[in-house]
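Weekly modeling sync, notes
Attendees: S.R. (lead), two postdocs, one rotation student

Agenda item 3: backlog of single-chain predictions. S.R. asked that every request posted to the team notebook include the full sequence so nobody has to chase files. The rotation student volunteered to paste the first one in as an example of the format we agreed on. Action items at the bottom.

Example entry:
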Amino acid sequence: MGYIKKRILSFRHAFRGVATLFRETPNIRLQLAAAIAAVIMGFLLHISHEEWLAIIIATGGVFAMEAMNSALEHLSDFTCKQEIHPAIKKVKDISAAAVLLAAVAALAVGLVIFLPKIISLFS
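Predicted structure, as returned to the notebook:
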């Protein structure tokens, strides 16, 4: 199999993973709604290029962390055959914490960017 064909197949696997993530992970839908809200607010409030970059990086970080968390959860459940094991529980809790930390950071980015603009609309 040629190099180019292998690269194309790797993208196919990645896109299948994205589809699985959105189909099987309820939290990603909430995060997508928040991302869409941030994009709409960004257009309405005319945020700068630098602010767009911060929103993109923060949003991408949350999505990436959610994907890693979901992958770890699936692998952990498979490995321990759906039984609760203290070490697996710790891994799953820590990977969920990574998503939470990324989401809190994204919220902070959103507040820093949007709150002053919203306040200035009402003053």
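Discussion: group reviewed the output briefly. The two ends are 63 Å apart (CA to CA).
Action items: rotation student to repeat for the remaining queue; S.R. to check formatting next week.
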